[in-house]
Amino acid sequence: MVDYKVVGSVAFLEVNNPPVNALSLSVRVGFVEGIERANKDKAVKAIIIIGSGSTFISGADIKEFGKPMRGPGLVEVGERIETSEKPVIAGIHGNALGGGLEIALFSHYRIALKNARVGFPEVLIGILPGAAGTQRLPRVTTVPVAMDLIASGRHVAAPEALKYGILDWVVEKDLPSECIKLAYNIIGKPLHDRRLRNRPVTPVENFAAVYDAALAKVTRRSKGFIAPVKCLQAVKAAVTAESYAAGLKEEGRLFMDLMKSGQARALQYAFFAERATARWQLPTGENYKTCKPLPIKTIGVIGAGTMGSGIAVTALRAGLSVTLVEQERKFLDRGVAMIKSVLEGSVRLNKLSPKAMQKSMSLLKPTVSMDDLRDVDLVIEAVFENLDLKKQIFGKLDKICKAETILCSNTSSLDIDKIASATERPGRVAGMHFFVPAYVMRLLENVYGKATSGTTVATIMQLGKKLGQVSVLVGTCNSFVANRTMSKYGSQATFLVEEGSLPQEVDQVLTDFGMPMGTFAVGDLSGLDIGWNIRTEIAKAQGMNLTFATRYMGGDQYSSLSDRLVQKGRIGRKVGKGWYKYDKPNGKVATPDPEVTQIVLDHCKELGIQRHKISPQEVVERTMYAAVNEGFRCLEDGVAAKPEDIDVCWLLGFGFPRYQGGPMFYASQVGLRNVYDKICQFHERFPNQSIWMPS
Ligand code: T1G
């Protein structure tokens, strides 16, 4: 897995371990053999380490984690490189990440292509650079830069890495020949100072203050997540230990602490779970291997509201031409303005070049006529959540669009089979459910109906990846998988407030658990009137008379607490009051509102509910296990294919703390037996809440 070839007086050690040249056992052994062979080879005067294929080395092989380490460890490999008598050059293209960057830092010189990137992403999988990275980075760059890169895990473009001193040269092209040129320049030069172990850590003024500031930033950004803190402690060891060897020992101790932690297991699970979603299968047996996607170059988006415009942005950024349809010119103009301002925002944040923005805008074709969708390859409808309206639109699209056009709805809850029934092409109808804002949230819930074909699924799964989303394939059912499991979590939170807690208390427990926002704060953000509208639609469809005394909705026990707020005009942040009161309409500062407490007390009195104290532990169990039980029901129903898909929905759709892996992974860590027993207890306590019927 490490090919050896000599060109003139230079030996190339070419890492050949597709797809990302991870440092698997065979690569580590290959390095040891290659360095030894080159040092014995009289013809060889310098050694170049380079990656074959699209990249240098992307790190240790995460698939080997949790198994007994075999063969030479990465530090041992690194030390063979560093102590080599002949100079070793790391020639970097693509990525030099994690152990890959560590191999480069054990090399004596580092040269990279301009579009290469380096970084220490170990923290993102719950560990830290465990092959001397935390000890050697602060010997080539400043301690603050080393702490930032190691604790954030961010990738650094080659020119920036050159500025930091991590790279010695950056070249435009022809990396192998540039490496050879460099080799001939450095042959014979002394290597002592090129061995980073011999270099002192870059001196830093008032390290205690620098360290405290970095620690404060890290703990503020990711409360409860331990890896970033240990990353800083490892860099601190580089600064304070009496020798490189002592610092390395401390790094190893901290590394093992993290490696054994549940958070690292959860993060590594999440890493692979996100990638496993691409390996989908339909109940018909058609799957990602047997179905080929159709090429999509032009798409139509119907509806220029928040969702439609957001979806248009993701497609424009991916280089697709977008025909944006809105009935009324003034709404269309507003949508175009929204798209423009989002793209301008990306330019301001240096995420998009002005040229790329112009190109994106040139691909946008706003129109008030659906006839302009005649030739597009795929349409995404994003209009008001009303089944009749959607069926009407799909009926029209069926007549307007060419036969092979795929028709998708961004619906968040309506039955894809019902929508497809309005067309003559049910095989080409599916759901593409984006999360608001579509150009930020990476979750795309792709929904298949009974008739959706494998080709259609393959096409929308690939389109999702092209749009920068992580596509999760689910079967059609009410609210699909993400919102269906989330709604159980949310309804338990409301019952907890009825039974004795308060919105701010429940939210505090959930944010302490690691959720980015409490469920009541989220309700205020999206607007309590949305839930009210959906419930009145359901009540109308079922001929129910919805009152505050209603305790059953769709067969399940239901609390009218949020409807009481809506009736008092407290529909959320946009009006400055909902479950909380805000400093101003659309204000960000939420404070508990005694008026809401009174509404809750009055509601409970009217319904004769005896309130009692509720422990934080019960808040976590009631909300999370409701979601978990519903998740297992989604697996039973077959609408979710595997637990990983449910976890990815929560990680990317609702910001579930990544270091807990997702609700299903979290339940497995608690122990499914324990979760089951708890659910049975809740089932006895709440016989009227069907959610507690154990899956
Ligand atoms: N080990 C094993 N498999 C890996 C891998 C890795 N490091 N990186 C990627 N893969 C697999 C991935 O699962 C997928 O497999 C395929 O490669 C393509 O990946 C001591 C201990 C490099 C930026 O954390 O960030 O070094 O699903 O779809 O979008 O200090 O992969 O096809 O079967 O993501 O082009 C540190 C993790 C390890 C880098 C490429 N390194 N990888 O992205 O492809 S710990 C990382 C990535 C370490 C040392 C420590 C990305 C990428 P499959 P992909 P991509």
Descriptive account of the structure:
With 695 residues, the protein is an alpha/beta fold. The chain has three domains: 2-259, 2-enoyl-CoA Hydratase, Chain A, domain 1 (Alpha-Beta Complex), CATH 3.90.226; 298-476, Rossmann fold (3-Layer(aba) Sandwich); 483-692, Orthogonal Bundle (N-(1-d-carboxylethyl)-l-norvaline Dehydrogenase, domain 2), CATH 1.10.1040. The chain is 47% helix and 13% strand. It has 27 helices and 21 strands. The strands form five sheets. The chain has an eight-stranded mixed β-sheet, with helices on both faces. It is globular. The relative contact order is 0.07. Bound molecules: (2S,3S)-3-hydroxy-2-methylbutanoyl-COA (T1G).
Task: Tell me the CATH topology of the largest domain.
Answer: 2-enoyl-CoA Hydratase, Chain A, domain 1
CATH class descriptor name of the largest domain: Alpha Beta
Rg, nearest Å: 28 Å
DSSP strand tally: 21
What is the percentage of strand-forming residues? 5-15%
Total discrete domains: 3
Provide the list of bound ligands, each named once: (2S,3S)-3-hydroxy-2-methylbutanoyl-COA
Q: What does the average pLDDT come to?
A: 96
Portion of residues in helices?
Answer: 40-55%
Sheet with most strands: 8 strands, mixed
**What is the strand arrangement across the widest sheet?**
12-11-10-13-14-15-16-17
Category from helices, strands and their pairing? alpha/beta
Shape: globular
Distance, first to last CA? 47 Å
Please give the count of helices.
27
CATH superfamily of the largest domain: 2-enoyl-CoA Hydratase, Chain A, domain 1
Oligomer: single chain
